[in-house]
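Q: I have 212 residues here and want to know how they pack in 3D. Can you give me a structure?
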Amino acid sequence: MHILLSDDHVLFRAGLIRILKEKFLNASFEEVSTCPELFKKIQEKEWDLLILDISMRGQNSLNLLPDIKKIRPKLPIIVLSMYEERPFVIRALREGALAYLTKERASDELFRAIDAVWSGRRYLPENIATQIADHLALKKPERPHETLSPREYEIFLLLSQAQSVSQIAEKLGLSPKTVSTHRIRILEKMGLRSNHELMHYAVTHSLSQPPL
């Protein structure tokens, strides 16, 4: 059994391997800490499981999921992230992940998630599943930030951290012109006039996050 861990925190990877080895005695593990390393490993050989962090050294690994699924369409993927916001969860599932866990609950949920994805089923912890179910059931009017696409929401979070267009372009591998276009659309969709108003909105709605 070959398990690939993709996360840029060495201590977290070590702790995760220690937990997994207690149950999967014959498993072999390999580790990567960047998106380029991840894609190289995916190309090199078959894997039985990929455990994937979203934010790795300033890059969003969800951008790689479509290409990963093209190369390894049957690869079970569990996203293990610090982010529990609905746009990240939905994007991960849409792009091919079968499970989405938050790191703070990993030790409690990880084995259940692995059992599910190896059976071809999706898995979400109760708190995230309830959040999504409540949103769908109650059909609440969308708040302005909920009208954003996953890419727009990603850029919105980076803008809310006072990052410049050029910084965001470099992080996401986009041109500054593309980021500027997204910024304009974000402000229009949200009815905002400036980055200052955007940052105030993020703080008011408790949306500020550590940099991706």
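Q: Anything worth noting?
A: The radius of gyration is 18 Å. The mean pLDDT is 88.
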